[in-house]
């Protein structure tokens, strides 16, 4: 049985933020439909990796390569990456004052549909899909007509990110602490949506410290990022070990 080619392939990625090198050398593969959990202490570079792959202009790639679906990801701007099927949820989703949530998501969705050579959705059809998805995620329908994230609680912001994910159905989703600020029902909604999209072929890179969520997601691979490098590669046992001992102990050298 042949192994499918990686959807995302990163090799020796080195990233600077201002004058500081945050990622020193990161390499990883993400297969279609797979799920990779990324763990690491605060400041280890987890969010930097996601923002770099998504094309944030403040994160400068000093060296290395990244291929997405056989294309040079680093040669694309942020909009091209999104249209190609890459999705990023923010650790702290920002407000977008004056832009209604439903218009924002429909505009993004139609840009992706255009890239897929699919017909755009009109407002009526989109609202039907958006209302159904919002109900499943426990997001009040009234949120669709409000400015993006303005006045939303932390949990509502994260559910709104899930709504975007559910409607955009990307090829690869980078979820940066999507469970942060979520209640029990919100975490359950994360797991259910990820399982549904994985079954449809979406791949995931999930940043999380929450062992119960990680165990529920059943990742294919768990990576520990330390000082801008992948320090450990494993499975659920790696996540469980980190949960038991913490990152400081995980980073200690093993005695001979």
TrEMBL record:
Q: Which NCBIfam families match?
A: sufC
**SUPFAM superfamilies referenced in this protein's UniProt entry, alphabetically:** P-loop containing nucleoside triphosphate hydrolases
Q: Identify this protein by name.
A: Fe-S cluster assembly ATP-binding protein
Q: Does the keyword ATP-binding apply?
A: yes
Family indicated by similarity: Belongs to the ABC transporter superfamily. Ycf16 family.
Domain ABC transporter residues, every copy: 8-252
Ranges in a coiled coil? none
């Amino acid at each position: 049985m042949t192994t499918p080619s990686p959807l995302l392939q990163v090799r020796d990625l080195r990233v600077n933020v201002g004058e500081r090198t945050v990622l020193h050398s990161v390499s990883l593969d993400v297969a279609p439909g797979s799920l990779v959990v990324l763990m690491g202490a605060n400041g280890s570079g987890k969010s930097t990796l996601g923002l770099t792959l998504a094309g944030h202009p403040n994160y400068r790639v000093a060296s290395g390569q990244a291929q997405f679906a056989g294309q040079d990801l680093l040669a694309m701007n942020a909009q091209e990456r999104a249209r190609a099927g890459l999705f990023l949820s923010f650790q702290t989703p920002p407000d977008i004052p004056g832009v209604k949530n439903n218009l924002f998501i429909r505009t993004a969705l139609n840009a992706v549909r255009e890239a897929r050579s699919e017909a755009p959705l009109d407002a009526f059809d989109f609202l039907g899909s958006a209302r159904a998805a919002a109900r499943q995620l426990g997001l009040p329908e009234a949120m669709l007509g409000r400015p993006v994230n303005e006045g939303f609680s932390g949990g509502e912001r994260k559910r709104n990110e899930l709504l975007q994910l559910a409607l955009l159905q990307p090829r690869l989703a980078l979820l940066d602490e999507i469970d942060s600020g979520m209640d029990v029902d919100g975490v359950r909604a994360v797991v259910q949506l990820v399982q549904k999209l994985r079954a449809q072929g979406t791949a995931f890179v999930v940043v999380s410290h929450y062992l119960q969520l990680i165990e529920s997601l059943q990742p294919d691979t768990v990576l520990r990022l330390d000082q801008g490098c992948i320090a450990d590669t494993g499975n659920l046992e790696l996540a469980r070990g980190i949960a038991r001992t913490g990152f400081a102990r995980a980073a200690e050298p093993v005695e001979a």
